[in-house]
Write a structure and sequence with these properties.
Elements lengths: L3 E4 L3 H13 L3 E7 L6 H5 L2 E6 L10 H11 L3 E3 L9 H9 L3 E2 L4 H8 L1 H11 L6 E2 L6 H11 L3 E5 L8 E4 L5 H16 L4 E5 L4 E11 L3 E13 L2 E7 L6 H17 L3 E11 L9 E7 L6 H8 L3 H9 L16 E8 L1 E2 L5 E2 L2 E2 L2 E3 L5 E4 L6 E2 L6 E9 L2 H14 L1 E3 L5 H8 L2 H4 L7 H4 L1 H4 L7 H11 L19 E8 L2 E11 L2 E6 L2 E7 L3 E3 L2 E3 L2 E4 L3 E6 L1 E8 L14 E3 L4 E6 L6 E2 L4 E7 L2 E6 L4 E6 L6 E2 L4 E5 L4
Parallel strand pairs: 1-2, 1-4, 2-3, 4-5
Antiparallel strand pairs: 6-9, 7-8, 7-9, 10-11, 10-13, 11-12, 12-15, 13-14, 15-22, 16-17, 18-21, 19-23, 20-22, 24-25, 24-32, 25-26, 26-27, 27-28, 28-29, 30-31, 31-32, 33-40, 34-36, 34-39, 35-38, 36-37, 38-40
């Protein structure tokens, strides 16, 4: 076994690897960028090495610097985590050439699965079922259109070097194929430097089921399946294991196919074989097809650990150090059911835009396994993925586990950044999801209901006012009284576009009279809050110039300082502003240029995603205020249109 390893990553996966390493008595070395100098993973490690600037290209993607750090600190092996260099075969070769061990598969195995078209050909040869499609080298648009006609519409165009939904287009009719192909190729070229695509049959009611595999370079086992069908924009949101509706027969067939795939490339370490599954009419032995293989540890591996009782990072360390596979196939069992929800800093109503901010408050309930790379007080950086935590629950049955997930999401408290927490809660109580009727289109079908933000009741506003006035805790009995009568205090609270004016009178003994926008409420503070005689389970958290009330949902209010002048003002309607901090990747407008509503004026990159900024009306560009390569803050003016007539 190794005595010291370096983790070539950051955030929650770096922290998660360190937890297992510490339990096994293995020392850890962290690497960090400028932005991560005070990060949680740096504090957890036995040693930490600075490797460069905040942008990934200046730090976490610098393989040579990372290898040098491993050599300098005496680490014997490098754990890549996921993302960054985890599936870069050239990095694996360099690690090996430096005399170090890469805790993962060989460079050859990564290359074999790195291009989707080559991987599917390889899987066909190995006897693994693949989706009907075209994966050839001829990229002539006419040839590709004929291939699509032969496969039959609808078809999916996918970048061969893609991931995360980039370079992917659904085409339902032949007339739309040419435009979709052009767009997919352009996006693939920009994202991956490779515009080659493949064409495959689009499954109408698709489910995304993946199988966790683990190999030693010769043989492999599987640790059963995970259902990752609950997705938005091809990104997983909630994962579960085992898959709803899975039968022993289909599980046996799918597991055998996944093991066959791993053994065909001499796979070593943790990997995931992803299958696209026809969800119409139940799962069938002939209704699943190979989609791709992720040659690394997956984000959602905790649900597999929850149902098997195995630690996959421990398996990684043991096999990479030369030990045998910890379990044989017949020694592995499924115990109960597990869910994992991905908590992100993102603005859901604004289209799931990544968000930033300092986490002023962060608490997870003890009933959940919370894998997180941040703490209260940490900043969500614009340079990296905005994940706050992964919350995993386990129960004896699916219904029990889902009930636990809903409760855990109710009790999770986050303030300082907008998050997808309310969205996750809505999913956890969705009737179709509860019934196990899941497919990759579920979120899109019910998106309006799922993204609706909860509205604070007057009871919640009343409690927020008590928090803002610091009347929410224990106080001396005379607090709040003048010589003859209760002292009334005023406070103004703002939530989004809504402002509340609240008058609070302390009556003694934890009793208050609260006027919310002129409506009277009686509040009693005790073991639980009572508002107008009804119990309100709430946690009131003052946070300086703001206050949060956690009552099933998190409600956040800014406190208006009465001494401040009203600085709010309406914009002139002519500015195109940055919706978040980011890098200006492209500017397509020039002063004097006529534009129409919906025209793309600029591209902003933030947190690994590109966002098109569009003209909101017809007009003429008066001024371009940025150039490509500028780093801008949220709200920064980018382009100004001339005054409308």
């Amino acid at each position: 076994m190794f005595t010291k390893i370096l983790i070539a990553n950051r955030g929650e996966i770096a922290c998660r690897v360190m937890q297992t390493a510490a339990r096994m008595g293995v020392a850890t070395v962290a690497v960090y960028s400028d932005a991560d100098a005070q990060a949680k993973h740096v504090a957890m490690a036995d040693q930490a090495v600075h490797i460069g600037g905040s942008a990934p290209a200046d730090s976490y993607l610098r393989g040579d610097v990372i290898i040098a750090a491993a050599l300098e600190t005496g680490a014997q092996a490098i754990h890549p985590g996921y993302g960054f260099l985890s599936e870069n075969p050239d990095f694996v070769d360099a690690v090996k050439a430096a005399g170090l061990v890469f805790i993962g598969p060989s460079a050859e195995a990564i290359r074999a699965m790195g291009l989707k078209d080559n991987a599917k050909v390889l899987m066909q040869e190995a006897g693994v079922p693949v989706v009907p499609g075209y994966m050839g080298a001829d990229q002539d648009p006419v040839h590709l259109a004929k291939a699509a006609d032969k496969i039959g519409y609808p078809v999916l165009i996918k970048a061969v070097a893609g991931g995360g939904g980039k370079g992917m287009r659904l085409v339902e009719e032949a007339a739309d194929f040419a435009d979709a192909l052009k767009a997919a190729k352009a996006e693939a070229k920009g994202a991956f430097g490779n515009d080659h695509v493949l064409i495959e049959k689009y499954i109408q009611r698709p489910r995304h089921i993946e199988v966790q595999v683990f190999g030693d370079g010769q043989s492999a086992v599987h640790l059963f399946e995970r259902d990752c069908s609950l997705q938005r924009r091809h990104q997983k949101v909630i994962e579960e294991a085992p898959a709803p509706g899975m039968t022993d027969e289909v599980r046996l067939a799918m597991g055998a196919a996944a093991v066959k795939a791993a053994e065909a490339i001499g796979y070593s370490g943790a990997g995931t074989v992803e299958f696209i599954v026809d969800g119409a009419g139940g799962l069938r032995v002939d209704g699943f097809w190979f989609m791709e293989m992720n040659t690394r540890l997956q984000v959602e591996h905790p649900v597999t650990e929850a149902i098997t009782g195995e630690d996959l990072v421990e398996w990684q360390l043991r096999v990479a150090s030369g030990e045998a596979l910890p379990r044989l196939q017949d020694e592995l069992r499924i115990n109960g059911h597990a869910f994992e929800a991905r908590l992100y800093a993102e603005d859901v109503p604004a289209g799931f835009l990544p968000a930033t901010g300092r986490l002023t408050h962060l608490e997870f309930p003890p009933a959940a396994r919370a894998d997180s790379g941040v703490r209260a007080g940490d900043v969500i950086s614009p340079f990296y993925d905005p994940m706050i935590a992964k919350l995993t629950v386990h129960g004896k049955t699916r219904a029990e586990a889902l009930g636990k997930l809903a409760r855990v999401l109710e009790l999770t408290e986050v303030a300082g950044s907008v998050t997808n927490l309310a969205f996750l809660r809505a999913l956890a109580v969705h009737e179709g999801f509860a019934a196990g009727d899941v497919d990759t289109g579920l979120i899109a079908r019910d998106i309006e209901t799922l993204v609706a933000e909860p509205v604070a009741s007057e009871a919640v506003v009343a409690l927020a006012a008590l928090g803002a006035l610091e009347l929410h805790g224990d106080m001396p009995p005379e607090t709040g009284f003048t010589l003859w009568e209760p002292l009334a205090q005023m406070v103004r609270l703002v939530a989004g576009e809504v402002e509340h004016e609240v008058k609070v009178s302390a009556l003694g003994g934890g009793r208050f009279s609260v006027l919310v926008n002129g409506a009277a409420h009686e509040v009693l503070r005790g073991f639980h809050w009572l508002v107008d005689g009804k119990t309100v389970a709430a946690h009131v958290v003052p946070l300086g110039a703001s206050v949060s009330v956690f009552a099933g949902h998190g409600f956040h209010f800014d406190i208006v300082d009465p001494l401040d002048a009203d600085a709010s003002h309406a914009g002139d309607g002519n500015l195109i502003e940055a919706p978040m901090p980011g890098l200006v990747k492209g500017v397509f407008a020039k002063a004097g240029q006529a534009v129409a509503e919906g025209d793309r004026l600029a591209i902003l990159e933030a947190m690994k995603m590109e966002h098109a900024l569009l003209a909101v009306r017809d007009g003429v560009v008066a001024e371009v205020l940025v150039v490509e390569g500028d780093q801008v803050e949220a709200g920064a003016a980018l382009i100004r249109l001339e005054e409308a007539d």
